[in-house]
Design brief:
Number of strands of chain A: 20
CATH topology of the largest domain in chain A: Naphthalene 1,2-dioxygenase Alpha Subunit, Chain A, domain 1
Oligomer: homotrimer
Shape of chain A: globular
Number of helices of chain A: 5
Distance between the termini of chain A: 6 Å
Number of domains of chain A: 2
CATH architecture of the largest domain in chain A: Alpha-Beta Complex
Strand content of chain A: 25-35%
Chain lengths: 342, 342, 342
């Protein structure tokens, strides 16, 4: 089950142009394109006549024409031309989804369009603020349930095992995090004082001794996580520092596959090529280490759907996030203000 | 559900020889081979002993010997030798299917053998008449329900969108077809007067001006379509012309895959290498444009089996064809003269 | 359904070391590794915390540490360390399976550990006796139900059809086997007097005339077969001979896939490179001829699960073996001393 009334990242803004882009979101086939004035449009990617994906068609002016029999759809989903036929019945239409462009992403609302409040898009101002340099790696398609990604982001201990050669350090497990839940937010904070920096931080910061390190995550359902991370010379709050914000917005494709959108913004060394390489390439490699784990988890879950799971101390945050989301989905289903979901 | 009591194209005659050929037809595993005198034989492709496909065996004289334990089957499906055993119980036999060779194809009857009337094979005399030159391209395996192919053949408007660079023209949608249904036949006729020829017709006919074009399809269930197509210099009924008959006999492999058999016969320019290339190669490319559409439709239908479909004017003929076929299948099932089908 | 209380070959001993090895056995995910002292360990390959395969982790001392959150499991399956947590609840554990190393294989017991009697491992002493030279080819993964392999081994007639160019001969089908069933054993014996040797025997034995040949199989459920095979100069019981024991222990991976373990031991020509090549390479090719048949059978069975099968005379032994195994599985299920199986 998905939360329908929420904004999800549908695509990087650079992915959508005049050529139609097919993407499955919450199990629904969606096609994205841009109108002449650049406005993004999202329609159901299935001609209501004979089901051809509209993404196999062509954009003409502000409309999308089906590649089979030429039915032409306006940006609101209404069919406005049927070759060989003068009158067009009202039922000839496809769903049109609210979309908004913000923080370099195109956001889509799969639920009830009247509830599509732009104010519900998270305020990720680090993505296009001049004092921050934002790396925008390509989305990674991950064969796992999207909630496994939230679990991963909310848990810091895995850095010591999954990312031991990049951003991990033995010191992490020894510094237990503090977890808070407030309203629709789960916050995990971790402070590691006076320890050696992990390999990628060392490379980025060129430290000569120990550092004080922080790793604070704020997660809001259904799938928005902000990871405030960095370190500073031990004991010198104004010392040399590595400081970044990692943004994560995994969008469910199906119940077992996810479009993993993420970005890294940093407040230092904008023009340092070594640091640029870390943020555009090596951090992506770190994410790929997670992907190997996430997909293996999903394979095991698919193999034995009811397998026993035991919780441990580090799960406090991810369990809180799951409960938040489950509550929101249950409330939405009860209100019946969304179509039944997969 | 399939219509069992009907002839289907099982193979091009050139495909079947002394080496067994495996092919699934209406969901049944079939093996084809030729006897010493050249007669084609079709048997169930599953040894009744331990299920090995008989197509993994060898043809010996007029029989087929299983490649596992050597059981030997005669052309009528009876097992006539069991190595290491003197008596052969009557239940040791596989199904044998009536086959007939006509119009360069081997036709098979999957239903009740006593109903296998050779007169029910369509009269496609253009295939081996000396005044017609018949191109016989290899069968295309298409991952779609066979009825989607009938829909495609019966609809002319898609030429303007799917085949715009080959046989399509904007003029098609503007010239609505006439659809007739009589007995077990659906006929669609379309006449486009005094318009430029489409690219492949121009290449074949070297016209210097507009043409009058016709595109008439006769479809008989379960899957036989004849497309009478061509054009002539505008207003000159005896002028230079391109004239062809496209024959289509898609055979269901399963409910979502099809062996698409087709041929093109022409009554002009038998020895022109440019025209020969159009008929043997470029028309096949046109069919491959259809295949891309057909397989995408099937993917969408598989993804969401009950998805809404709205009919439009151009569907008159294909809906009539579907009703005809449904009626025949229902009648056959009610008579219970066929085994239950997939 | 599988027989749980039985020893199965999990791996060649050379396959298991300090790096974890993942292998699915009877549908269960298992990980194998060796402790410091070389003892083999088999654990459930699924962390009980968040289901990551433990085979993605690392062996530390005698334990296995999960690659996600660092949970450390001892060889008995108990979790003995949870990073960031001081107390460890008893429910944090995975299954540990009894394993034993014998005849160059690692044997595993998937059922009730208290019933894991080492005396139940078959006595295949030819595998490491100095007077026998044992070839130990890599396991072959076969996409078929394991019982199809027992059928294959217990039946000699197929040699004439599947292996006609290697170990088959027309004389086989003409010499009917004798089948005996005693307690938990099915024995098939076949004696072929005074006939030409099959190609591989001729190559190994360089015979100048006919041979007397024997092919005797002893099969014990769930899946142990010993094939005593060979030939000697016709009429000379002390003459030149080819003598071998082929051991077969196919281990079910799932209900439709099998890890096919086998070995060949011979009592002649230990140091002859031609014979060595036959036993290490060409006999494996013979097994691959079987694999092609076995996988085709399985494909056909999967395609039409209830398809009719007729038994013939050569099935006496394999039917007896199937009845033996079915009886053992039924008894085990009735005793309820095993967990419900797939």
């Amino acid at each position: 089950m998905f939360l329908q009334n929420a904004w999800y990242v549908a695509a990087w803004n650079r992915e959508v142009g005049r050529a139609p882009l097919a993407r499955t979101i919450l199990g629904e086939s969606v096609v994205l394109y841009r109108k002449h004035d650049g406005t993004a449009v999202a329609l159901e990617d299935r001609c209501c006549h004979r089901q051809l994906p509209l993404s196999m068609g062509v954009v003409i002016d502000d409309d999308l024409r089906c590649g089979y029999h030429g039915l032409r759809y306006a940006a609101d989903g209404a069919c406005i031309d049927v070759p060989g036929q003068s009158s067009i019945p009202a039922e000839l239409r496809v769903r049109s989804f609210p979309v908004l462009e913000r923080w370099n992403w195109i956001w889509i609302w799969m639920g009830d369009p009247v509830r599509a409040d732009p104010g519900l898009i998270p305020n990720w101002w680090w993505c296009d603020h001049p004092q921050w340099r934002c790396s925008q790696p390509d989305m990674i398609h991950v064969k796992c349930h999207y909630q496994l990604i939230a679990d991963n982001v909310l848990d810091g201990t895995h850095l010591a095992y999954v990312h031991s050669t990049t951003i991990g350090a033995d010191s992490i497990a020894a510094a237990p995090p503090k977890t808070e839940r407030k309203d629709h937010l789960v916050r995990v904070t971790r402070w590691i004082a006076d320890r050696p920096p992990p390999p990628l931080y060392q490379l980025a910061g060129n430290f000569t001794g120990n550092v004080d390190r922080w790793a604070n995550v704020e997660h809001a359902p259904p799938c928005y996580s902000v990871n405030f991370a960095g370190c500073v010379e031990a004991g010198k709050s104004n010392g040399k520092r590595v400081e970044l914000v990692a943004l994560s917005a995994p969008t469910p494709e199906t119940l077992s596959t996810t479009h993993y959108f993420f970005a890294f913004s940093r407040a230092f060394a904008h023009d340092d090529p070594v640091v640029e390489d870390i943020f555009t390439r090596r951090f992506v490699d770190v994410f790929r280490e997670d992907v190997a784990v996430l997909e293996a988890q999903q394979r095991m879950m698919t193999l034995k759907p009811g397998a026993r799971q035991v919780n441990i101390a580090v799960d406090v945050a991810s369990l809180a996030a799951r409960r938040l989301l489950e509550g929101m989905i249950a409330a939405e289903q009860q209100r019946r203000d969304v179509p039944p979901t997969a």
